[in-house]
Amino acid sequence: MAENILEMRGVTKYFPGVLALYDVNFKVKKGTVHALMGENGAGKSTLMKCLFGIYKMDAGAISLDGRECRFNSASDAIKAGVSMIHQELSNVPERSVAQNLWLGREPLNKLHLINHKKMKQDTTTLLKGLNYHFDPDARMASLSISQQQGCEIARAVSYNASIVVMDEPTSSLTENEVYHLFQIINELKAKGVAIIYITHKMEEIFKIADNVTVMRDGKVVGSFPVNELNNDKLISLMVGRDLTHRFPPVQSEIGDVCLEVKDLTAENTRSFKNVSFQLRKGEILGIGGLVGAQRTELVEAIFGIRGISKGEILIHGKPLKNMTPKGAIDSGISLVTEDRRSSGIFPLLNITVNTTIASLKRYTGKIGFLDQKTLERIAASHNEQLHTRTPSMNTLIQNLSGGNQQKVILSRWLMTQPEILIMDEPTRGIDVGAKYEIYTIMAELVKQGKAIIMVSSEMPELVGMSHRILILCEGQLTGTLNKEDISQEAIMRYATKFSSKL
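RESULT FIELD:
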C-alpha cells in the first residue's frame, strides 16, 4: 500500500467573524488522486491555501514525507515540492505565455539578465510534452479561457512537484480538454506524484479519483475509497441532507416577446453572424454550444460590450439605439458575466459596494449625494433574500465562497430592477447545493415575469432549466429546441453541425 506523502493534522483557521477550518485531519498517499469535496464555503480551498503557504494556520501541523514543515509563503511550498492550480486564473494578461509560465523563476544568462531564447525553448518543450499547442510568444489575454487554464496546468506541472493541488481545473475546459487533463494526471500518478483534486463535477470523481475526503462547514465529514461511494451518498455527505432533485420545477407563465434579436453579426468577422431569436417574459432561454461557439460574444454584444456590424436588437418592438452597457441597463437588461474574478467582483471592496455599484444613480439625490443608508438597507435586503452567507455586509467579497460571490453579483443586478437577466455560466465553480439555490432563484424570477438568457456549458443544466434552447456552432445558430424536443443528444447534434472535426 502506498505511503502517505502528506499529513495535515488539527488544522484550524479563523477569519474575522468566521471559523473557516476546525481541527481538520487530511492524509494523501503517493501516486494517488485524492478528491477533496464539499459545498462552497466548506473549507476546501482554505485548507489547500494553508498547505500552500497562502494562509497561516492558527493551529495544526503539516508533514511531507514524514517531515514536519510549515510554509510562510507559496515560494516555500513550491521549494518543498507542492504546486497548485488555483480555482481563479492568476495570469498576467499582457505578458506572453512563456513569461507567465516562468514568472519569478526566469532563466538567466551569464550577465544575470533574462535569457529569453532559453525561456522560449523551455516553454516549447514543456507544452509539447503536455500536448498543448500554444504559441510561447502569444499574449496571454489573446488566449481563450480554456487555453489560459491549460497554461495554468502547464505551469503547475513545470515545478516537478511531488504534490499537485488542482482546484477546479476543468471549470473552463471542453470534454476533449478534460480527457487530455486526465491523461496528464495519469502520467503524473505513474511517476508517483500525488494529486489533490477539487471539483464540483460529480462525474469526474468517479473517473479519476482513488480516494475522497468530504468537508462540511470547515470540518472533515469522512474519507473513503471512491469505490465505497455513489453519486447520492456523496451528495448527502456534502450537503448533510438528501438532494433528490437537481433542478427545481420551473412553473412560469410564458408571456409576450420582450427581446428580439434580428440578423445580429459581430464586428469581428470570425465571431457570430446572422443570429436571430426572440425571448419572452417568464422564459428561461438556454444557449448551448461547444467552446468557441461564440455564445459569450453574442450575449456581450446584446449587453453592449462588443460591437456589431449589422443587425438590430429590439426591446418590446422598439430598436435599442444606445448599444452600450449603460444603454442596456437603462433598457432593463443586466448581465452576470462568465468569469467572476476578472469581470464580476471587485475583490477588495465589501459586499455592500459590490451589490450597489450598478445602481448608484438610482440612489443619488438632486445635489449629487448618495443616500447611503437606503443603499445599505436595500443591499442587505437583496442578499438576505438570496441567502448570501457572510459574517457582515462589510466583509470583503474576496473572502466569500464562489457560490456566495455569485449571489452578491445576482443581488447587484436585481437592484437595477431588470426585465431581462443574462446569465453566462451562472453556476461555474459552484457546488451542488449552491447550484440548487441559484436555480431556485432563477425559477422565482421567471415566475415573477422576468426573462432569463442562460449560457451554459453544462448539458444537464441546459436540459433541466430551459424552456427553449438555442445552439450555436462556430458563430452560427444551428438549431432551436423546444421543451419537448430537448435532450443532450439533440444539443450535441446541433453543437457539432458545422464542426470541422466531423
